[in-house]
Amino acid sequence: MHRMLKGCFHGLLLTILFCLPAIGQQVIFKNYSFAQGLNTYNIFRTFQDSYGFIWVSTQDGVFRFNGKQFAVFKNNNAVGNSLEGISFFDMAPGKDTSIYIAGFKSGIEKMNILDLSVHKISSKLPDLWLKRIFIDSLGGTWVGGIDFLAYRNNDTSFRVIKNIEGFPGTLNIRFLKPLVGARIAVGIEGFGAAVFDIKTAKKLYNISAETFPCSGNKCEVRDIITDGDTVYAVTTEGVMKGLTAADQFQSIAFYPFPRYKNLIVNSAVLDKEKRFWIGTSTGLMRFDLLSNQVELYQVNRIKKRWLIDNHINHLMIDRQNNLWISTSKSLQMVSLDPSSFRYFSGDVEGSDPMDHVYSMVNSTDSGLYVTATDGLYRADLTTGSTKRIRGTETLGVVHHIENIDKDFWIVTSDEGMYGFIPSRNIISKEILLQRFPEWRSFAQNYFNNVFHAGSSSYWASEQNEGLIKWERDKKRITQFKKGTTNNGGLPENHIHNLKADKKGNLWLLMDNSVAMFDIETDRVRKIVTYQPSNKSGQGFNSRVFFDVFDDGKMLWFASFGGGLNGYNPSTEEWTFITEKDGLCNNSVYGILPEKDSIFWVSTNSGLSRVNYYTKNCTNYFFEDGLQDNSFDEKGSLILNGKLYFGGINGFTEIDTRKIESQATPFPVYIHQVDYYKGNQLIKRNNLQWKQVEFPSGTDIINVHLSALTFAKNQKIKFSYSIAGSQEGYVDVADDNIITLNNLAYGSYRVNIRYRQEDGSFGTKPLLFDFYIVPRWYQNWWFKALVFIFILGLFYAFYAYRI
Are strands 506-510 and 238-244 parallel, antiparallel or unpaired? Predict the structure, then answer.
C-alpha cells in the first residue's frame, strides 16, 4: 500500500510538473543595430575570439564588437584593413591569433586579431560560394560550399569531396562541428551528419535520424552539440543523446519536443544549466531535458525588449554566459545569468499597459495596487500581468490608495476622494462619504501619502493643504496648516512625503525644508531648512525633499538635484553622496534599505545600490531590466523581502538575494590609436602596445578603449591621468575615447583606470606610453649649433674690437 501511494504521488508530481507552464526568469532581448554601428541586415554568424571580442559575419561585411561600438571590415572600408569580399557567411578561429573568414566570391581570408592585418589565402576550390569554415585541432582547414566539402592539411592543396557514401543528393553543408577523438561532424542538408577523421579526412560513419524514434517523415539531424564525451543530435522533432565510438554513434535516449514537430532547426547551443536553446525559422526555443519543459519565443509587437525576428540563423553563448542570436533582421543578445530585476509595464499577454506609476500598495492577495497617471491598476506578482480597475480611467491621476479594512480602500485622485470595494468592483465617492462622512470637507482634495500611528493616521497634502490627521474611531479630522491658528508649527503646506525615523519621530518632507513632527503633541519639534547661501557644506545641497532613511546614526534625505544629503542630528554634521561619488543621478526620489550599510535609491536616471559607509555606487538602467530609467517620488515599496520602485512605463521588482557580491572580471584593452598629422587621420590597431612613437607635428591623439563586458557594459566608466603633467583623473566620455591635444614633443605616460559595475576600480589599470618626435629645429643638436653660432658671433665681435 505504501509503495502504491508513493508511486501515485510521484506520478501526480510528474503530471503537475509537465502540465504547468514554465515560469522562468524574465527574458530580456537586447538589440544591436545601426545605433551601435551594425549598419546592415542578414546576420549569419557570431563567435568570440580569444581576447573576448565578438565577431559578426553579415551580408555586408565582418564586424567586431567591443561592447560599445561595432567596427566594420569589408571591401574599401574606413578602418583601413580591407577585405576583398562583401558578403561573409562564416568565420572560424585559428590556432594562433588569426581568424579565417569565408565569403561569397572572395574565398578564404585570414585576419590577425591583434593588428587587424588581412591576408588572402590562395585556394583552388570548385567555386567561391563558401558557406562554412572550420579549423580543426591539428590546423587543418575544412570548408563547406554549395555543392562540395573541401579539406586541406596546413598548406597543402584542398582535397574536394563531391559525394558522400549513402547520400545520393547534392552536398549542401549545414555545419562543421568538432567531436572528441580527432573527429569532425559534417552536417549535410537532407541527410544528417557524416563523421570524418581529421588526420586522414576519411569518413567513418553517419549520424542519421533514420535510427532515431522520430514520428515525422521530415525528421532530420540539423545540428550537433558536444558536452565532453556526450553528443546531442538536434533534430526537427527532438534531441537524441548519445556517445561517439570508433565506428558509430551510440544512442542513449531520445527527447521529443513537447507539442512541436517538423521544426526547421538552424542552430542549437547548450547553456550552463544544461538547457538547450534552439534557433529555428519560426522562433527561439528553450528546451529543458530534465523537466521536459519547452518554451517558444516568437515575435510579439506589443512586448518591449523582445525577439524581433523569428527567422534565426545562428546561436552562440559567449564566455560571460550571454546568448547571441543572429537573425535575418538583427543581432540580439540575452543574458542567461539570473537577473535581480523584473519589470512590470503591461506587456504580458492580456495586460493593460501602465503610463506613469505613482505609488504601489500591497493588495493582500499576492499582488499590488498600483496608482498611475491613467488610473488604478492591480498587478499580479506571479504572472506579471497588470489590469486597470474599471472606472478609474476617468479619475485623472490616481495619487494614492489606502487600505481601511479587508474589503474597503480609499482612493485619492485628481477628481478627489473615492471609496473602493474590490469584491464588488465598485469605486464611488458616495460610498466613502456614507461610511466616513467626516471626509466631506476634503472630498475634492487628494493626498499622496499616509502614516499610521495607532488608531490615527496622518495624510500628506500635495495641494498646499498641510497635514491632515484622521482619528477614525472618533470620526474626526484635524487640519494642520501654516497660516492658520492650528498650524502645528508647519513651516510649509506642500508635503511630498511622510516617513518615521528609528526613534518614532515623523518627518515631513517639503519643498524648502524638512520638519520633525511629534505625534504625541501634534507639534513640529525641529526644522532643517535649505539655505541657498550656504557654501560651507553644512546644509542641504538642494531644495525639494522626497524621502528620508535613518541608518541609526545619519538621516539620509533624498533631494531633487542635490543627491543624498546625510544629516547627523546629534552633531549636526553633514555628508553627501552625489554623481561625483558615482551616484547615477542627483535627483533622488525613493530610498529603500537592503541590509546593513546598503540601500537602494531611485532617481531621474536609473537606480543606484549605495554603500553609504564607503560611498560606492552600483548603477542600474533600462538595459539591466528596469521598466525605464526615470522614476517618481512616491513609487517605492518593500514587500516580502523584495524592493519595488515605480515611475515611467511601470515599475521594477528587485530580488536583493540575487545581487552578486563581487564584480565579474572582464578584459579591457586599448584597441586603437589614431592621430592627426596635418589634416590626415592615421590609424593604428593593436591589443599589445609597447611605447608608440608619433611623428613630429602630432598634436591630437585619440586613444580608443574597450571594456569587454556585454550585459553590463553601460556601467563601466573609464578615467585617465597623464603622469607628471595632470593631477587627478579626468572622466572619459561615454564613447570611451581619450582625446589628447596641444601636446608638445617628448615622452608621456597615460594611466587609465576603470570603474566596475559595483563601483570599485579594476585592479589592473592600463598604461599607454608614447613619444612625440621633435621637429628638426627642436632637436638638441640644432639648439647646440645655434648656441655655438651665437657664441662665435660674440667672439668675432670681441676679436674685431681688439
Answer: unpaired
Separation of alpha carbons 126 and 108, rounded Å? 13
**pLDDT tens digit sequence for 416-432:** 999 999 999 999 999 99
Calpha distance 632→653 (Å, rounded): 15
Q: What is the DSSP secondary-structure string of 215-247?
A: -STT--EEEEEEETTEEEEEESSEEEEEEE-SS
Say what the pTM is: 0.86
- Grouping H, G, I as helix, E, B as strand and the rest as coil, residue 671 is strand
Tell me, what amino acid is at 370? V
Here the cell at position 324 is 547571441
Q: Cα separation of 246 and 248, whole Å? A: 6
Residues 173, 131: Cα–Cα separation, whole Å: 7
| Close Cβ partners of 526 (under 8 Å, ≥ 6 residues apart) | 515, 516, 569
- Contact in structure between 130 and 144 (CB atoms under 8 Å): yes
Contact call for residues 287 and 275 (beta carbons, < 8 A)? yes
Q: How far apart are the first and last CA of the chain?
A: 134
Query: Which whole-number Å values give the CA distances from 347 to 22, 379, 380, 485, in the listed order?
Result: 18, 12, 13, 51
Alpha-carbon gap, residue 26 to 655, rounded angstroms? 13
302-330 pLDDT, tens digit per residue, is 888 899 999 999 999 999 999 999 999 99
Sheet of strand 149-152, all strands in order from the earlier edge strand to the far edge = 130-135, 141-145, 149-152, 159-161
Centre a 10 Å sphere on the Cβ of residue 579 and count the other Cβ atoms it contains. 14
Cell 460610498, residue located: 431
Strands 43-48 and 54-58: antiparallel
> Which H or E element spans position 794?
helix 780-801
